[in-house]
Design a protein that fits this description.
Length: 191
């Protein structure tokens, strides 16, 4: 009697297990990145870092404005705007390397390289594609700003960094709140 009468299959859904493993891996990478950023930040003074971050945001904001100008004027844009953009990116990259801020210097280098490639083909594509490439370039610059912000947030959490711009924003918000309270009291007497 070598006949099989019953077969039993056991199936297990490992979807949740795989999601947990993926989540743990992401958390481990984020923790490792945060540790590296903390080590990099601890090598410089708060004043020097404050100057770097303020300068980086100014250069990145100016670059975004220049890219928007090129995009809006394309194909009759000012060639010197690209020179300003690349000089700004190069400055942010160089300054981040001086302070050993590796994640910032890496992303700036990647954006700088990609933008040089994009720039070399910009005048060879139709207007819509060129404008889309320039919009993507803007998003890349925002990505750099996001990375700079990541360093700032970690610095604020651990080293209690506070920058002059933070103080100005808090002051403006406080004044607006006071004015809002006053206006509410005028409209709602029992407020």
């Amino acid at each position: 009697n070598d006949e099989i009468f019953k077969v039993m299959f056991i199936a297990e859904d490992i979807t949740e297990l795989e999601l947990l493993e993926k989540d743990m891996k992401e958390q481990k990478e984020a923790s490792s990145r945060k540790t590296i950023i903390l080590q990099e930040l601890s090598q410089s003074s708060k004043e020097d870092l404050s100057l770097f971050f303020t300068n980086a945001f100014q250069l990145l904001d100016e670059s975004i404005d220049k890219i928007k100008s090129i995009r809006n004027q394309f194909p009759d844009y000012n060639e010197k705007d690209f020179e300003v953009i690349f000089r700004n990116l190069h400055t942010v990259k160089g300054n981040s390397r001086i302070f050993s801020l590796s994640y910032i210097s890496t992303i700036v280098h990647e954006v700088e390289s990609a933008s040089l490639e994009m720039r070399s083909h910009l005048d060879k594509v139709d207007i819509k594609l060129a404008q889309q490439n320039l919009s993507n370039f803007i998003q890349d610059i925002y990505g750099i700003s996001g990375k700079v912000n990541e360093y700032i947030q970690i610095g604020k959490e651990v080293f209690n960094f506070e920058f002059e711009d933070d103080k100005k924003v808090k002051s403006v918000i406080n004044n607006l709140y006071i004015e809002f309270e006053y206006l509410l009291s005028m409209i709602l007497p029992n407020y």
